[in-house]
Design a protein that fits this description.
Strand content: 25-35%
CATH class: Alpha Beta
Number of domains: 1
Order of helices and strands: EHEEH
Amino acid sequence: MILIRRHIVFYGSVQGVGFRYRARNAAEHFGCTGWVHNEWDGSVSMEIQGTEEQIDEVI
């Protein structure tokens, strides 16, 4: 099993709508680790680690 790490930035209406909560829950459901946080410009950054298949399921 090869683990990869991706840094992803989401733009649009992603703050104040539960996006971080749902992204974290999806990552945990598929066995990924990492973090999600709001950025000053209104975007949300996510760093996620897992297999390519796990990350594809989350995204």
